[in-house]
Structure formats: structure tokens, C-alpha cells
Specification:
Radius of gyration: 19 Å
Number of helices: 7
Largest sheet: 7 strands, mixed
Distance between the termini: 52 Å
Shape: globular
CATH superfamily of the largest domain: Vaccinia Virus protein VP39
Helix content: 10-25%
CATH architecture of the largest domain: 3-Layer(aba) Sandwich
Strand content: 35-45%
């Protein structure tokens, strides 16, 4: 078995890449495109993906939205390399609060996913960013981010999932046929008095019961876990007209494959004891 930590080159001699594993185990950009278009409710053509990482959503957006384009912003140039040369995707390396220019980089919809809104640790920083985001939105535009909550939100512990490795990806990474990835979300620290949490992602490649490779602490996040009411209040303070909450999955998919959603109203018993939701703000 080969074991690597986040401080080592993730591609090592095995061909493993933590970003490839992340996209396999964590992201489903095609489904997210449909969900976000439904939340927007109009003819969204231009996407802004902030804290974009590998710009997986932006790449899916230009594939699946006719005439679509995207602006992906992240402070780390290395993962953004995956979007280099993708037609319709423009990448910006820098701070999401300053790198994009209102009036120049305006979009119809801004997405901040994978709980990255927690990279902003103070209310002041959060409101400042939201004001900047609002100025980048075209008329009828929508800002959407996700967060998690519920009774387990500030409990430490692990969640495990297994994902089969597609043949094409396995061949590219040099993995045996029939491999699968054991993905672990580890909340190792949580302070409900400050709202700060520390989460780590681990990946283990297994085949026929044998652990082939392991990537421990592939990603480690120390962030503020913003609650839904905190986010909604900050959005309104930043100048948005209204803020709504949506389930992470569409309410329905029609025969043409279009997603349909409706906002969750206060008092409705739709949320599980532990939940992930999208919080949307409209200009």
C-alpha cells in the first residue's frame, strides 16, 4: 500500500491526483447545473464560480448550457489549470473579494459550493464579499451558496462513502480494473460557541479487498460554519432583495430533464435532522 499525506505530491509515482479523487467522490457538476438553473428560474447564460477549485462546475456549465460561458475564480492557480483552454471558461487567480471586476466580470448566477463560504470567518468579511458579489450580478441575477446544519453540525466524527472508479479514469491514474475509492469526510474539531470547524477529506483506493493507495488529509479545511439565518441576514444586509433556502436536490425532474424547485418555507418539516441546503439571494 502507498500512503501519502497532503504535503506530498498527490500524483506521486501512482498517478493519484487528489483533485481527480475529489471530483469523483464529492462533485456532481451536471446535476448541479440543472439545480442552479432551476433556482435561477430564468435564462441564466453566464456563470460565476467563486472558490472554484478545478472549475468543475464551470466546465460542465459550458458543455450543457447552450451559449453558456463561465468565470471561475480561485486563489490557487494549480487546480484552475484544469480549465485552461476550455472554450467559454475564463479563469481568474486571486481573492474572490477583489479579483473580479463589477461591470467587467458580470454574470447571471454566482455559485459558492462545497461549503467554501466558510472561508470567510467573520461577519464583516462575509458581508463585504456578498456586496461585491451583488455588484457582479446582472439584472435578475442570483447568488447561491451551500451550507450544512442540524443536530450533528457541531459533532466530531466520520462519514464514509464508496465510489467505483470509472474505467477511463482508472486507466489514466494507473489503477487496477474494478477499483473503488473509499471517501471519508472527517469533522475533527467543532466549536459551537465560535462557529469554527475543522474538516478533513481522506481517500483510500481499494481493489478486491486490498488497499492499493491511501491519501490522508488530502484536503483540510478550517472554516466558519455559517447557519442559514446568519447567511440570509448577511445577504439582506449586503443589499440583496430577498434570500431563500432550497433543498440540495430538485423537487422534481420533468420529462425533458429539467429540474424544478421551490423555496423551503419556515416551519415546513422538509429538512432532515442533519441537512445540506442551498441559500439563494436575489437582486
Amino acid at each position: 500500500m502507498t500512503t501519502m499525506d497532503a504535503g506530498e505530491a498527490a500524483t506521486g509515482g501512482t498517478g493519484l491526483d487528489r483533485h481527480e479523487l475529489y471530483e469523483l467522490c464529492v462533485q456532481n457538476p451536471s446535476a448541479l447545473v440543472a439545480l442552479l438553473r432551476a433556482i435561477h428560474g430564468g435564462e441564466a447564460r453566464v456563470l460565476g464560480e467563486d472558490f472554484s477549485g478545478t472549475a468543475a462546475l464551470s466546465r460542465a456549465w459550458v458543455r450543457e448550457v447552450e451559449g453558456g460561458s463561465a468565470v471561475a475564480v480561485d486563489h490557487d492557480a494549480e487546480p484552475l489549470e484544469r480549465a485552461r483552454g476550455v472554450k467559454g471558461v475564463r479563469t481568474i487567480v486571486g481573492d474572490v473579494r477583489t479579483a473580479s471586476e463589477p461591470g467587467t466580470d458580470n454574470v447571471d448566477l454566482i455559485w459558492v459550493g462545497n461549503f467554501s463560504i466558510g472561508e470567510l470567518h467573520t461577519r464583516e468579511a462575509l458581508v463585504l464579499y456578498l456586496r461585491h458579489a451583488r455588484l457582479r450580478l446582472n439584472a435578475g441575477g442570483v447568488f447561491v451558496c451551500d451550507t450544512y446544519g442540524g443536530e450533528s453540525a457541531f459533532l466530531v466524527g466520520d462519514v464514509h462513502r464508496h465510489h467505483p472508479v470509472p474505467t477511463e479514469l482508472g486507466d489514466r491514474l494507473g489503477l487496477p480494473r474494478g477499483s473503488r475509492v473509499r471517501y471519508t469526510w472527517h469533522q475533527r474539531h467543532a466549536d459551537p460557541l465560535t462557529g469554527m470547524v475543522e474538516n478533513a477529506l481522506h481517500f483510500r483506493v481499494e481493489c478486491a479487498g486490498v488497499v492499493e493507495h491511501e491519501l490522508h488529509d488530502a484536503f483540510v479545511y478550517r472554516w466558519r460554519l455559517w447557519s442559514v439565518p446568519e447567511l440570509r441576514d448577511a445577504m439582506l444586509e449586503a443589499g440583496f432583495d430577498r434570500a431563500e433556502c432550497y433543498a440540495q436536490l430538485p423537487d422534481a425532474i420533468d420529462q425533458d430533464g429539467r429540474a424544478h424547485v421551490r423555496a423551503i418555507e419556515s416551519g415546513e418539516k422538509e429538512l432532515d435532522d442533519s441537512f445540506i441546503v442551498c441559500v439563494a439571494a436575489r437582486v
